[in-house]
Fold each of these.
Amino acid sequence: MPRLTLIGLLFCLLTASPVVADPRPFTFTYDAYPEGKGNVEYEQWVTFQRHTDNDSDFTRLAFRHEFEIGVADNFDLSLYVASWSYEDSDERTGTHFDESSIEGIVYLTNPVTDPVGIGLYAEFVVGEDALEFEQKLILHKDIGNWTFAYNLVLETELEGVFNDEKENEVEGVIGHDFGIAYSLSPAWRVGGELTVESIFDDWSHYEDTVVYLGPAISYQGGRFDVANHNLGWWVTLTPAFQVTSVDDEPDFQVRLIAALEF
């Protein structure tokens, strides 16, 4: 069913005529483009991960379903509904509910008209047996056809909070996400992304740093009518390869985000 749904969505997207939409130029790096007051967008995230040094047959396909609302011209609120995944690994095989979350972004400045676009991001995540808190500082600047973005990321995950028989574990992550893109035309952007994550046990013991690098491709679609509703769309794709040697992290991952604008 997920494969048929995704194929159907992509078919609709590719048969539409291009006009202006507001796509994300990257999939791992956040930008400072606000949704706009009163606008609503649905984003379908699909992330495929393959092969670790510890498990050569590791395969994971994760889905996130995001509803984003422009509450104000400088504030967006997003709800991720029942994110889930299919995994085939040494640890488990089958589908699994991962988490639900709520996210807010405040945009302090504009990446086009101001010297730099600045955004503040916060997300609260509830999993089956964990809580997670994530914050980002978003820096973004458009110069001519070029787009530059950087995110400073702080994540704290508390495992075992809903299980009285399990001792609580705390994991901290300091991340850096970089994105560069060039607009080939009003519809197409191409570029690349670099993500760096340093992992800490209990925020006191450094464990490892994993780095991914890959190209980013974004297509800005047109508008089409569905049941008397005029919808816009865009799609962004980033395949990323691990350039470090962290044994328990995937060697390859690809993320696709396809969006409908209402």
Amino acid sequence: MSVAADLAPEPSIPRCLSCSSPLFRTFVDLGLQPLANSYVPPDRAAEPEPRFPLHARVCDNCLLVQVEAVQPPENIFVDYAYFSSFSESWLKHCSDYADAMTERFDLGPESRIVEIASNDGYLLQYFVAKGMRVLGIEPAANVAQVAIERGVLTDISFFGTETAQRLADAGWSADLLAAKNVLAHVPDINDFVAGIRLILKPNGVFTVEFPHLLNLIRQVQFDTIYHEHFTYLSLIALQPIFERHGLTVFDVEKQDTHGGSLRLFVARAEAGRRPSERVEAVLEEERAAQLDRAAGYEGFEAKVQAIRRDLVGFLASARAEGKCVIAYGAAAKGNTLLNFCGVTAQDIEFVVDRNPEKQGRLLPGSHIPVRPVENLIEAHPDYVFILPWNLRHEIISQLPQVTEWDGKFMTAIPTVQIHSGAH
């Protein structure tokens, strides 16, 4: 062996975002992909598009599934194209949450309700309507401005220990602290969780919702993996993180949102809240699926490859038969799916979306044009490919016209499936 070879540096080994252990085990490698929410203006279509490794690994020590941080959060979340208020079913979920939390924790006009990643005020508006004092924390200024115009006081910042201490010092210690589908977006999960303790009142409650890793594995929801989702969460992996920072998970509820989610209830350890039986029940379910050992994460990549093979085959057959396929929902998860499968505008003429922020742009990577929903109605496609499969029933109910021209709906997760308008 040459001297040069002896002196060659070791390749960089990524470290776990939770416990800093080296990450050697692959969960699934989805190749080089653009940022899933980086929609492309048409006048920049010819410019080279940055692509980054999208490689999910699982920590052998703490079993946290994660991707590497290839871009700082400021490059992803400061000008953001996702607005929560465009899903009617999600708004109902949030309205129901506000009612349930108000009753369960006896919240009233003097209560302080704080939400991390409050987006366009989609959730806090329901607490405002109840006469409560609310504060949103949202890093994307364009989205936060919509919330402010809606009457939701919003602090434009990323959440962590610095923000938590600043807001607590300003009198915003929370009776109820909410975080819906933001924990996965955090590259420094320890700083984030430490901040939770700082901003909670001594008897305050933190609720956090996230898609459950158990469902991701069972339903092969690999399209929910993208660069801005740094982690893919189980209770087994999360519980030690909370305990490390003096917090206790005292209850858990299963939710139907985002393909199957968990809502955790968390308090300061010294508050003395005893964990409910539901906490142990979820842990036992995860252990039964072997999420407490390496075996539970094996074989996932083969299932992902099968979906790619089937979707590519379906679209090739549709094109050969002269069938028209148009996609619904310019969702980030759809971009992971389309780019991994190599789908382009030759396969899908365009995608429609209700969000005007996305209309007139191109999907990242595939460069499929994004148009208003009315364009789908005018086109009379043979197949409407629903990319946000978690909203399938809502979307089908909004498009009764499709059955009038004998069109069909389709989804690709967990397998390629055709759906009638009757869903």
Amino acid sequence: MIVMKFGGSCLDSPADVRRMVEIIKSEEKRQPKIVLSAFKGMTDQLVAQATSARDGNFDIEPIERKHRQLVDDLPASIRTPLQAKTTELLADLRNTLTAVSCLKELTPSTRDKIVTFGERLAIHTASGYLIEANLKNRPLSGIEAGILTDSNFGNATILDKSLNLVRERLGPIPVPLIAGYFGHDEAGKIATLGRGGSDYIASYIASALRCECVLYKDVDGIMTADPKVVKNARRIREIDYLTAIELGRYGSKIIFEKAIAPAMKSGILIRVTSFAKSSEGTLITNGGRAAAVSILRNLSLITILGMPGLCTVASVLHELGSDHDADSPILTEVLRDEISLVAADSRVERMRELVKNLREGIAVKVRTGLALVAVMGQGFKASQIRETLQRNRIEALIVASAPSGRVICAVMNKEDAERSMNLLHDELQISREI
């Protein structure tokens, strides 16, 4: 068996979908299990329409036009029944948005339902293209595929009992087409899995079935840096689970922290490779070694002054990480008489309020317009990072190791971040062969 996940950024036209079918057909003997994201741009459009509906208006015509164009490219014998299913799903989407528009209310549960119409439309559309290529298949979503989650809408976690459900429901099916990004909670409500949710589902299914997981992307594999920022970035041949997790945590748009955890637990192989061309890609394994540099933007520095027991404050603030869509504080530095916290801009006010509620009389300073450059891999030291930046006249507000000890983070003005990334990538020889 093999699990193959296709990202929405790769799937835009009928030619793209037929390219996907060719890849699937080449692995037909391995009983491929296919995980699909929404087609290119659809999730962003659905998020926008959900927000617009809450404000009293919406327009799904571009979404409808996109899927009808894809369906219309199929032969009539396949197109006719698929048009009926597409019409049914679009009607459900329109009715859901109408209800939001009338009530002027968008609950987390309803938002999750709306944004998953992209995946639900994609699996049925792709099913038609597989039928055209004489590949029998079955579109499945959520609990139909065994994906049972908790009820943390927007950032749900797959429950352990899904392992047996996945084996029971997917094992016997030669080519299931599984909707990425979401599952169902125990009450039957749709719950999305957050950033990288489709990769997460693919990795989880591969772990349950004990087989290889291949993630098809619009790049050749995982790179030592974002090639749009660092010209000398190269493809990493093999990377270990823990470094891959850190790369996902500190800004990679190619691999996500959640997607690695199931594979690491079961010891399965993940391959990240190109959709457009043949490539060896990047292997994520237990033994790979690699170094990389990444960037996080839109950050703020919160400094707390004048309070004893600052470590306790840090502990409380770290609990914010359990909140919906929370990812902060990203970095903490504790000095003798102050504590500095780096957080996403969107979390600053919430953290400021929490700190002030702890005790009267403490001072909180906030500095905005920052970014964080993270260097990951074995053998690097904070002193190297600091010296490189100082030598090139870049002010680093904080240079510190992340809690895992595998990443060194430098916080600076956002204007200096991309230059810093290039300097560190080159001077630390991050692109060297390992």
